[in-house]
UniProtKB/TrEMBL annotation:
The lineage of its organism: Archaea, Methanobacteriati, Methanobacteriota, Stenosarchaea group, Halobacteria. SUPFAM superfamilies: Winged helix' DNA-binding domain. This is Winged helix-turn-helix transcriptional regulator. Pfam families: HTH_24.
Amino acid sequence: MATQSELEDIDDLPPSAKLVFKVLEYKGALTQKEIVEESMLSARTVRYALERLEELEVVEEDVYFADARQNLYEIDVSCDTSADSADAKNCAD
């Protein structure tokens, strides 16, 4: 889950980037093509949104082993140690 400061940064993003973030939050790790299908945004818009989210370090890019030509995107699940106990417990699981 994103920290409070990351959520404030996300609030400053364009609506398309917020939508991509929410799609990844609900669906989990997806390829860019899958994000395009789920969000119904253009590929170029999704690419720009992912770049913005990566700049904020709230989205991680990884190799998609089923097709090495694609990347897998997911929300960065690294936890802040100052998070409340409920979030800290979720990170421990």
